[in-house]
Design a protein that fits this description.
single chain, mainly beta, six-stranded antiparallel sheet, five-stranded antiparallel sheet, binds fe (ii) ion
Length: 479
Amino acid sequence: MAVDFRKHPMFPPGFNAPTRFEADVYDCEVWGKIPADLEGHFYRMQCDFVYRPPNNEWPTGFNGDGHVSLFRFQNSSVDFRSRFVKTARLEKEKEARKRLWGVYRNPYTDDPSVANIDRSASNTHIYWHGGHMLTYKEDGLPYEIDPYSLETIAGSFDYNGKFKSKTCSAHPKIDPVSGEMIAYGYQATGLLSNDVYVYTISPQGEVTKEWRFKAPYVGIMHDCAITQKHILIPLITRTTSEERLRKGEPMWDWDGSKETMVAVIPRDGESKDIRWFRGPARNTLHFLNATDRKNKITMELPVSDGERTPSHISRWSFDLNSKKDQFDEELVSVANSPLARMDDRFLSLDYKYCFVGNSNTDRPNKIPSVNGQPVRATNEYQKVDVHTGKTSTFFVGDTHGLQECMFAPRSKHGAEGDGYLLGIANNYADMTSELHIVDAMQMEAGAVAVVKLPFRLRGGTHTNWFPTWQLPLRGSKIV
Ligand SMILES: [Fe+2]
C-alpha cells in the first residue's frame, strides 16, 4: 500500500507536512555576505516521517525518523547536504513499505515482527566528540555517522561495551576545560526501569567513570547540566506507567501532582554521594548552564509551571551547605521559547549570555493561518544577560518563524558572546527554509547573511556548530 498522510491529525498541509527527501545543494544561494571568520560545519536534526504513524501518535512529532542537515561553511560559501540516519527501524520499514513501529516509546504498539530490533529513531541531537559523530535519541544508544558524507556507519554505539546503559540521553555535555563528555541514560536497564547510569567519557572517547542510581519515579530526564564539580539531572513531572503503555498511548503524560526532583552528582564522588533536591511540578526539557560558587549551585533554564503555560528563563539554586532539600527558583527573563543556547565555550563556567527564542505577539504577523487557526511562531532571538536581564533582540520578520539557534564563536579564544547566531527560519510566504546568520554583538542590525534553500525543511529538534578547530574541513567542498 502506498504512503498517504492525508487526514492525519499531525500533518495539516503546511510547513510540518513530511518532506521525506535527501538533498545536496552545491554553493547555496546567499543573500548578504557570509563572514570570512565563520568556517566549519553546522548540523541540525529533524524528525521526518517516511511512513504514516498511528493516528494517536504523540503530536510533538518526536517519533519521526532521524534526519541530519549539514551546512558546510568555507571561504564565505556554503554547501548543503541532508541525509536520513539509516536506522535499523527505518530500513526495516522501507523493506516492508509501511510503518511497523507504533507510537512514541511504546513497544506494545509495534508490529510483533520487529520486537527485537533497535527502536531508536535517532532523531534528536548530534555531537562530535572523541573522534565520533553521533546522533542521539534518548530511548536507545547513538548511531555513528560520517561527519562529512552523513552516511550512517552503525547503530548501538556503546564505547566498546563500556557504556552499559541501554539508553543514552540526547543531551550529553562537553566540559570545555577538560574536554570530557558527560553522558547518561535513564530507563537504563529497560523499559520503565528507574535506573539511571551516568558516564564520563575522555576526549579520546574512552569511558572513564560510571555512576549508577535509581530515580524516585519514572519520569522524563531529557537533559542535564554540568558545573566544574557537579552533574545535575532533573526528573520532570511528565510520567508514565505500564498501564498507560498497555492502553496503547504514547509514553508521557503530565502529572502536576508530583514534585520535580533534581539529582546532584559530585563529579569526584561516587553514587552514594548523590543528593536529591525537590521543587514544585515543573514543565521543562532543556537546561542552559550551571555554575558552582561557595558550595552553592545555580542553574538557568527555560521552564514553565504547567503543561500548557509558556516557558520563561528561570534560575534554580541548590545550597549544598544547607540540609534543606528544596531548590529555590527566581525569574531571569520572560523570553518564552523552551529552546535556549549559550556560548558553549563557557559551559559549566561563569557566564553572562543566553540566546533564547521568543514569540513576540506585538510584532506584525503575516504568516498564513492553517485550518483557520492563526500560526504563532518564534519571531525573535533574544540575547539575555542572565545576571541583569538586559536584552537585545533580532526580529526575523512578519512572514518567518525561527527554529533553535546555535552560537558560533568568531574565534577560538574570543570574548564570550563574540560571534554569530545560526538558526533555521521557516519562510511561510515562500514555503522554503533559510539559514539566518546574525552577529551576536549587533542583534538589532538584522541578519548579516541568509542562506536560501530551494525547499522546505520541517521543524528541527537540535543544532550544533563545530568550527574548524574542533572538526577540520576536508577538501574544498562537500564530499
Ligand atoms: Fe532536547
